[in-house]
Design goal:
The structure holds 2 protein chains of 2 kinds. By secondary structure, chain A is mainly alpha-helical. Chain A has helices spanning about 10-15, 20-40, 45-65, 75-90, 100-105, 115-120, 125-130, 135-145, 155-160, 165-190. Chain A has 10 helices and no strands. Chain B has helices at about 5-15, 20-30, 35-55, 60-65, 65-105, 115-120, 125-155, 160-180, 380-400, 405-415, 415-440, 445-475, 480-500, 505-530; strands at about 185-195, 200, 205-210, 215, 220-230, 230-235, 235-245, 250, 255-265, 265, 270-280, 285, 290-300, 300-305, 305-315, 320, 325-335, 340, 345, 350-355, 360, 365-370. The radius of gyration of chain B is 34 Å and the shape is elongated. Classes of the chains: A mainly alpha, B alpha/beta. At the A-B interface, helix 2, helix 3, helix 4, helix 6 and helix 7 of A face helix 1, helix 3, helix 4, helix 5 and helix 13 of B.
Chain lengths: ~190, ~550
């Protein structure tokens, strides 16, 4: 797993672990933008994302000694961020309310391939990001973990606290939620024009 | 022809299908146009999602860009204020309490000591002051080793700081226990060293009545109802008894906790006693100084050095080789009294000096004893409260930083108010009693002293634990280390404010302080129990981010 624009700075990490304030500053400057984007995708508001980014880096600073240097730093960093964001959402009691439980029970409708292709063709990245904010927290979190952090199914299962076999279903439901959101936008656009 | 389901297509695109299933899917899409379109659409959907996620759509907010520098600056400010207040507090405590006390102890024959020596004063009960110096050195080394172990633990993330501290405590206990092994022990209803007996080495006595009529070439530790020394002890006499009477000779020091101490014989060096009544008979002689914490001290005999007395009444009709420094209600110098040094008395009324009394250094220097300490009223009081709160914050900060897991467990236990308070009342009161009781055995003395030290540490730490919980109740829970430290600081400030308000009603303030101490003590006790109970392996490292 790696993040865009991020290169592993082994020496910097070693120095930061030893308490070097400059090295810590370098780490922050290097990784803060990526973690902020992660939080921006995963959490409902910009303010939430800013607060979360600061808290995550405070956590990272305290827990840096626990980082296993044999694993990629970015993987560990995203794991910390994922745990933080998911805990935050869970504390707000929006993680699994009754409504989404019911949705989980519904069978997924098989898509029409041509309609799906047309929908994907017309939508932009910006619209997808905008639609992301309307999804249920779990769907949003699953998509961010998979398509932003490039986490494996095992890591996603661990972060979201679901069985590994269920990760595919969570992701597929998240895609369906996204399509519904994008279709809604399309309808709105059509109505406006 | 049966079409592929969407789930299988997504799993294929995500690389989650095994090789056989993947080949089957590929073969199917070669023949089925509808499934091929679906697979292509899903793949494009994956690419769109990835692109939407990874695009840099907005810059890092200025607040975040400035966060690191601001946090660093704000932290520096907090540290400076905290350290400044704590340093002022420590200096004020030292100059107001420790230094004068230290001077008095030096006058009492404990010269060449230092603050650490005074803090572990119990060690004087072991082998006299000379061996205390080596004890202080060993303790200092142990402390350094403990700190080193903590640093090592943080570096290696192995074990627990609490376990290391407990191990350090055990090391101290074992160190105390070493000399105990060389002591000869005698127990019984009546324990006696007969007149014709000559014992080489240290002796430890327990019994209803203890009599030393012979010679002991070493130290004597005697714990009994009555202790009588009519023989000769070449070392020190360390005793805890209802009545102690020395009509023989003790070449070294006498140190005792008693109801009544009577010296009718000779003490070669110093006498130090915590007792209700201490009397040095006309034929009694103390070679050096006398230090007492008693209700009544009477000196009819001869004292070679200084007298330092914290008594209700001090009556002198004998000869004092040095000076007198006394604090209490009454000082009476009879007509036969001779004092060869300065006499300082802090009391409620001037000393009662008879006409014939001979004071070589002139009249008694009297100063009135103020019932209310200057630090207990007015602006001073609030200044002191602020200093103490700052000192507690600093102490708590170190504790939370060094023992994050244990501090979290203690706070969690503390939130269970009923259980913590219950355990606190039970253990907080019974521990010092139990510690005093176990001191009646040879192995018990080091164990008792170590227990008391642990008890004191826990009582001192209790406010930090309670403060952390109060902070959590106000600001809400957090897993962040600095968040927890902040909550602890806020809680301690809140406690300080409550105590300052309750200060107007003295008894309520006292009750509140006791309740806080017992509550925190109970929480610490529960956390320690959970950590060390048999069969449970406590995790010292929070697993959330590993």
């Amino acid at each position: 797993m790696s993040a865009p624009g991020i290169t592993e700075s082994t020496q910097t990490i070693v120095r930061a672990r030893a308490g070097d304030a400059e090295a810590w500053g370098d780490l922050y400057r290097e990784y803060a933008p990526a973690i902020y984007r992660f939080c921006r995708r995963a959490l409902p508001t910009k303010e939430d994302a800013e607060d979360a980014t600061m808290d995550i880096f405070m956590k990272v600073r305290d827990k840096l000694n626990q980082y296993d240097a044999s694993r990629p730093f970015t993987a560990w960093l995203y794991k910390v961020a994922a745990n933080y964001c998911w805990d935050l959402l869970r504390r707000r009691k929006v993680r699994q309310d009754k409504e989404t439980e019911d949705l989980d029970e519904l069978p997924l409708e098989h898509p029409d391939p041509d309609q799906l292709e047309q929908l994907i063709e017309k939508r932009t990245s910006e619209e997808v990001r905008s639609a992301l904010q309307t999804l249920s927290p779990r769907a949003r979190m699953a998509l961010v973990l998979r398509y932003y952090s490039d986490m494996s199914y095992d890591e996603i299962a661990d972060s979201l606290g679901v069985r590994r076999a269920f990760v595919g279903v969570v992701l597929l439901r998240a895609r369906h939620e996204m399509r519904h959101a994008l279709e809604g936008k399309a309808a709105l656009t059509a109505g406006a024009s | 022809m049966k079409h592929l389901d969407e789930m299988t297509c997504v799993l294929y695109l995500e690389g989650q299908l095994d090789r056989t299933r993947a080949q089957e899917l590929m073969a199917h899409t070669q023949e089925c146009g509808e499934c091929k379109v679906l697979l292509r659409a899903l793949e494009r959907e994956s690419r769109l999602l990835t692109r939407a996620m990874l695009e840099v759509d907005e810059p890092l907010p200025a607040r975040l860009a400035a966060f690191q520098e601001r946090a660093r600056r704000s932290l520096q400010w907090v540290w400076m204020v905290t350290f400044g207040l704590a340093a002022s507090g420590i200096y004020a405590v030292y100059t107001s309490y420790v230094e004068p006390m230290q001077q008095r102890f030096e006058q009492a024959g404990f010269g060449g000591t230092n603050l650490l020596g005074l803090l572990i004063f119990q060690g004087a009960f072991w082998k006299g002051w000379q061996s205390m110096i080596s004890l202080v050195e060993v303790l200092a080394l142990l402390t350094m080793a403990g700190c080193g172990a903590l640093v090592f633990r943080r570096w290696r993330r192995r074990g627990s700081a609490v376990a290391l501290i407990m191990a350090g405590l055990c090391a101290v206990i074992s160190m105390f226990a070493v000399p105990a092994g060389a002591v000869e022990v005698r127990k019984g209803e009546t324990v006696e060293v007969r007149k014709d007996e000559n014992i080489k080495g240290d002796m430890f006595f327990t019994g209803h009545r203890i009599s030393v009529a012979g010679t002991v070439d070493g130290d004597v530790y005697a714990f009994s109802q009555d202790v009588e020394v009519s023989g000769h002890i070449t070392g020190d006499l360390i005793t805890g008894a209802q009545t102690v009477r020395v009509s023989g000779t003790v070449d070294g020091n006498i140190r005792g906790f008693s109801n009544t101490v009577t010296i009718a014989g000779t003490v070669g060096r110093n006498l130090m006693a915590w007792a209700q009544v201490v009397n040095i008979d006309p034929q009694g002689k103390v070679g050096r100084s006398v230090t007492t914490f008693t209700q009544t001290l009477g000196i009819e005999g001869n004292v070679g050095g200084d007298v330092v007395a914290f008594n209700q009444t001090l009556r002198i009709s004998g000869t004092i080789g040095g000076g007198i420094e006394a604090r209490g209600e009454r000082l009476v110098l009879e007509s036969t009294a001779v004092v060869n040094g300065p006499v300082k008395f802090e009391g409620k009324k001037p000393a009662d000096v008879s006409e014939g009394a001979k004071l070589v250094f002139g009249p008694v220097q009297f100063s009135e004893l103020k019932t209310e300490h200057k630090h207990d009223s007015g602006v001073w009081y609030y200044f002191w409260r602020a200093l103490w709160s700052a000192a507690f914050v600093l102490y708590g900060l170190v504790l939370i930083y060094l023992m994050p897991s244990f501090s979290k467990e203690s706070s969690r236990a503390c939130e269970n108010v009923g259980a913590s308070l219950g355990i606190g009342v039970l253990a907080g009161i019974s521990t010092p009693i139990a510690a005093a009781l176990v001191c009646a055995t040879v192995i018990g003395i080091p164990l008792g002293i170590a227990s008391l030290m642990l008890w004191l540490t826990m009582i001192f730490t209790a406010q930090v634990v309670v403060g952390t919980v109060i902070g959590r109740w106000i600001l809400g829970p957090t897993e962040d280390l600095w968040g927890r430290i902040g909550r602890m600081a806020l809680g301690i400030v809140v406690l300080g404010v409550i105590v300052a308000v309750l200060h107007q009603i003295a008894f309520v303030e006292f009750l509140f302080k006791v309740a806080i101490a017992l509550w925190g003590f109970g929480a610490l006790g529960i956390a320690l129990y959970k950590r060390f109970r048999p069969g449970v392996v406590a995790s010292s490292v929070a697993p959330a981010f590993s």
